[in-house]
Design brief:
Elements lengths: L28 H15 L5 H13 L4 H13 L4 H14 L4 H14 L8 H10 L4 H14 L5 H11 L4 H12 L8 H17 L4 H13 L8 H5 L14 H14 L1 H15 L4 H14 L1
Length: 300
């Protein structure tokens, strides 16, 4: 614990560990003492430099503790601390705690209070974190918030393409691309944009035909714009066939798509497709495919 401030006037409060616990956590004496002092400070509603310093010590011990971040935030605001300096401090914490949600929520609160809508302030730390873990859900979610809050969308496609090129199976990156394309509203999605996205998805599917993420993106683009899937029949047929059950398929998602297309146009082929999925290619979901087949049988 920091020696810069004196806490002798405080009586540490217990951590409220009484009651029935399924699994009792064996906190260290340092942790219990530090949190006990913080609880005492909170009880007296003290906002001070020593309280702020103590939150840093406590966060170093447990960065996932939501209440610590809330108390630190109120200290920063009440003491009118430099928000830019605080954001820099949080960056150091983030690097050591990459999976921590609280950090990104804290940054969001600071930026909303500060009011400076400059995405360039946030993009470097986001990219650093994603370079280290390209599927970090909390960081991707935070980037979405930053883009929406600042209104700075223009760089998102080029940004996310780097991550798809790096790993075409990165579902987080595909999800972010969908956000980048459709986030401003359907009125911004022209026929040219639609064709571009279809072409891009098909190119990525060609690199990894079994990749569910790229197929889902392709289908998602059609569904988002309420376009029928039938025009994708020839493309999907390059990777799967229903009519020739002896020919091995190259892509289970392609077989799923073909079966879905055939549901309305050729139900007999759709039934055969569900049988192939359930008995041969996707047996773990056999019950689901049997159910889908039964729906066709009931209506025909």
């Amino acid at each position: 614990m920091t020696d810069a401030y004196n806490y002798d006037d405080l009586e540490p409060l217990p951590l409220n560990l009484e009651g029935v616990n399924v699994a009792t956590i064996m906190y260290s004496d340092e942790y219990k003492h530090t949190l006990g002092l913080l609880r005492a400070l909170q009880a007296k509603k003290e906002y001070s430099d020593r309280a702020l310093a103590l939150t840093a010590d406590a966060i170093a011990l447990n960065a996932a503790h939501y209440t610590l971040w809330q108390y630190r935030y109120h200290n920063v605001i009440e003491l009118k601390k430099d928000i830019d300096a605080e954001l820099n401090w949080v960056e150091d914490i983030a690097i050591d705690n990459p999976k921590n949600y609280q950090i990104w929520h804290y940054r969001q609160m600071l930026l909303e209070y500060w009011g400076k809508k400059d995405a360039k302030r946030e993009f470097p730390i986001i990219e650093t974190m994603l370079d280290d873990d390209t599927k970090n859900y909390h960081v991707w979610s935070y980037r979405k918030w930053v883009v929406q809050w600042t209104g700075q969308w223009e760089q998102e496609l080029s940004f996310v393409e780097k991550f798809i090129e790096r790993d075409v199976y990165n579902n987080s990156a595909w999800s972010h691309r969908f956000f980048a394309v459709f986030g401003l509203g359907l009125d911004q999605v022209t026929d040219q944009v639609f064709e571009r996205e279809v072409k891009y998805a098909k190119e990525q599917i060609a690199l990894a035909p079994h990749n569910v993420s790229s197929w889902n993106y392709l289908i998602g683009v059609f569904n988002k714009l309420n376009k029928p899937l039938a025009p994708l029949k020839d493309f999907a047929s390059q990777y799967a066939t229903i009519t020739d059950s002896m020919t091995p398929i190259q892509s289970i998602p392609a077989l799923e798509l073909l079966t879905k297309i055939y549901k309305t146009s050729e139900p007999d082929l759709a039934i055969k497709g569900y049988e192939l999925l359930g008995s041969k290619y996707d047996t773990i979901r056999r019950n689901y495919w049997d159910y889908q087949k039964s729906l066709i049988v009931q209506t025909n």
